[in-house]
Write a structure and sequence with these properties.
The chain is mainly β. 3% of the residues lie in helices and 48% in strands.
Amino acid sequence: MKVLEIAGGIHKDERGTLSFVNDFNFESVKRFYSIYHAETSAIRAWQGHKIEHKYFFVNQGSFVVSWVQPDNWDQPSKSLQPAYTILDAERPVILSVPAGFANGIKALKPQSLLTIYSNLNIKDSAADMWRFPAEQWLDWTKFK
């Protein structure tokens, strides 16, 4: 599987704003959680999963979300090239990151809120957690 974006949209009228991603299917989702970053200095990276599939959606603000496919889960190459995208609440998208990737996030605007959906319950997710240093594959300081 590959990482992909599921596009959504925004509808605005005198009553307010409606944000949606109508093509997202919740069939495999077993849980969700949200991450709020009041400031833009925090980096959450890298969390890898061999079997967990994650979906990222920005409710408020903006985040850079990056992913990389480890070549060896115990000692991955430091020369791997991560990919990334900018997710913004003004452009509703769900980023689908399948099993077999490590991911990282950083808020680009203060008071940003990110919701993550997962295909695993918390117990199974904890058993499928691989952590790597934040600076391993990406210079997060280039994102301001």
